[in-house]
Design brief:
about 80 residues, 3 helices, 4 strands, elongated, transmembrane helix, membrane, transmembrane
Length: about 80
Amino acid sequence: MPQLLTVRVKRPDRRPIRVWVPLLPVVLVFSPVVVLAVLGAAVACHVFRIDVVRALGTGWRIVSALPGTRVDLEFSRTAVLVAIR
């Protein structure tokens, strides 16, 4: 499971902004929403006749593969880097 989300924004003519977000407290705060999302996904899988265990397992594999992901965005002279560790 990812542990840390790092966001860096490089702006022209200003100091860059860096934000570190520990993901465990965020997940704990949003855990009721996560439970509702998992229940909604399970109902949707049942409606569309998809194996619920296989779908949730695939979702977990995607989340556990996130560490090491980097997303670089550039727009005009502003650059945003998002890194998941």
